[in-house]
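re: the backbone from monday

yeah here it is again, tokenized this time
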């Protein structure tokens, strides 16, 4: 293999066409797009023309080509069978989240790829956001002290649409929780470590499609911290600021707009070194803080370059199969909690 990974795409419409191909694969320094496939031939031909790739007429034809890796960006119910077919063909795989339609599928995908000797990555690209990484360094260095509470919010307006697979749990696995909450949960585990217990509620607050349009999850962590995740398909885009809040015994890191598909956003740290005395008046300065503004990084390019590097260096990707399995396990516990009304232990 050269110093460039040859990529194929299964599911060339949707997120692949909007983001991962133009922002990730095409500009990546160690990747080259070769072939694309989509169930809709017209969409696939258009995507191929846009990115100077060869359109394939089937997944089998794509997997029989000389590519090294495949990016899977299809509905969630297809992920398992397509990952298994790709592993059988000896291709490394970057799969969109959720990794499989269930914990059992995710584990099967992980184990099959391990046996086949191919790498399996999970497209939880928000970990690569430069401000998220800067916040992670501060948390790991103890800047906010002992983690106490976190919040991650991701909402949008997603009205009823014909053939919208995220609105059908038989195809997408669920609604706002699995689609957007997976990212939020993953980020909070990145900052605070292992989640041990979850309590969750889901609802159809506005829209009447089969998947939930509203979800709130409460999370307990092994280190004693707690957090909440709120994800909605029924809040207008400009009304939700997609907050990320990390609180500790020495301060906080507060952000808006960093959770999402772009590299923008605002993040500020409020650190109080000397807070040993009790202030009965609880005076608060509404301004100040330390602005966290590292050089922006395109998350899609970062995830493609990192996964390509893992292939070229014959190592595990930073966001590998195990993180995908873990994320699916927590989501399954959240849905079980919403169904039973109980707090669920995450194994």
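seq for it, each position gets an aa:
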């Amino acid at each position: 293999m050269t110093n460039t990974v040859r990529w194929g795409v299964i599911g060339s419409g949707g997120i692949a066409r909007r983001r991962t191909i133009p922002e990730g694969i095409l500009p990546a320094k160690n990747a080259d797009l070769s072939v694309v496939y989509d169930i809709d031939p017209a969409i696939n031909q258009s995507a191929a023309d846009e990115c100077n790739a060869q359109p394939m007429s089937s997944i089998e034809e794509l997997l029989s080509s000389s590519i090294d890796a495949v990016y899977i960006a299809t509905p969630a119910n297809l992920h398992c069978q397509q990952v298994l077919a790709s592993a059988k063909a000896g291709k490394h795989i970057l799969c969109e989240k959720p990794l499989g339609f269930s914990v059992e599928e995710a584990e099967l995908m992980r184990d099959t790829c391990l046996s086949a000797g191919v790498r399996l990555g999970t497209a939880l690209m928000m970990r690569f956001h430069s401000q998220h990484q800067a916040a992670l360094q501060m948390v790991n260095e103890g800047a906010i002290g002992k983690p106490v509470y976190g919040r991650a919010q991701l909402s949008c307006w997603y009205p009823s649409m014909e053939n919208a697979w995220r609105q059908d749990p038989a195809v997408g696995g669920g609604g706002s929780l699995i689609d957007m909450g997976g990212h939020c949960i993953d980020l909070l585990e990145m900052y605070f470590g292992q989640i041990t217990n979850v309590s969750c509620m889901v609802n159809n607050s506005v829209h009447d499609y089969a998947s939930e349009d509203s979800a709130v999850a409460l999370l307990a962590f092994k280190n004693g911290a707690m957090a909440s995740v709120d994800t909605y398909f029924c809040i207008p885009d400009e009304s939700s600021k997609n907050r990320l809040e990390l609180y500790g015994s020495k301060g906080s890191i507060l952000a808006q707009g960093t959770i999402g598909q772009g590299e923008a956003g605002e993040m500020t740290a409020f650190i109080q070194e000397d807070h040993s005395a009790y202030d009965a008046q609880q005076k608060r300065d509404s301004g100040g803080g330390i602005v966290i503004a590292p050089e922006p990084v395109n998350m899609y390019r970062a995830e493609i370059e990192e996964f390509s590097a893992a292939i070229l260096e014959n190592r595990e990707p930073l966001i590998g199969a195990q993180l995908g399995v873990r994320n699916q396990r927590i989501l399954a516990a959240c849905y079980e909690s919403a169904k039973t009304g109980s707090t669920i232990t995450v194994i």
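The CA atoms of residues 4 and 30 lie 4 Å apart. The longest strand covers residues 147-155.
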